[in-house]
Fold this sequence. Notes:
Elements lengths: L7 H8 L13 H11 L11 E7 L2 H13 L13 E8 L8 H21 L2 E6 L7 H7 L5 E11 L43 H5 L4 H17 L5
Antiparallel strand pairs: 1-2, 2-4, 3-4
Amino acid sequence: MSEVSARPALEAVRARRSWSKVTDAAPDAAELLELVAAAGRVADHSSLRPWRIIELRGDDRLALGAAIAKADGDDKPSTKPLRAPLLIAIVASYRDSGKVPHWEQEAVASGVAHVLSLLLDEAGWGVIWRTGHYTRSKAVAQAHGLGKHEELLGWLYVGGKPERSRPERRKAVDASGFVSRMPAVTTVPDQPSLPDQPSLPGEIAHWRNKPDKGKKHKKADKGEKKKAKKPDKG
């Protein structure tokens, strides 16, 4: 019986790889919906959900091949979409927001794509994220039915993992070359001035109950004015 990893997310990320060649098997619509629902939990400022997914199966891929050919000015349809039985188009669907700019919304859509590719890989499917200059072409956008405020970020090509495949060539990441501290601060910015307050907890009660000298003076002034108005009995 295999042991369950105490850190399954870490192991899944370490094990994932891109699969340029896949078999004709593919996840069905129900499985895809389950994985997309999980991928949609990425960090999302204001919970705008500025993304959507389009699945291409069967003849959908032929339509995409024709759109790519039109974008490239070719006479023959592109066969690239036929490299996998399922293509998942990742769409950034921008929302009107005064707080969240478009680049941040696109980052959310990209996050969904990355997490979805990881979940598919963990579920046993081969995945590779493919793009190209034609992702932003009018012909390809029309083929996907994109709106005015939407952009295509590419496709996840999904299929079965071949039994015989070459080992992963990607080298391990040396994190020390990508992680650093913030540059040293040479000058400390001026701090806002604060009213005199007690520095010790024991002094708080005394400080709060300390009489206001200004108020005493005001009361005294009023008393003197009343005395001055009093007529002289002598």
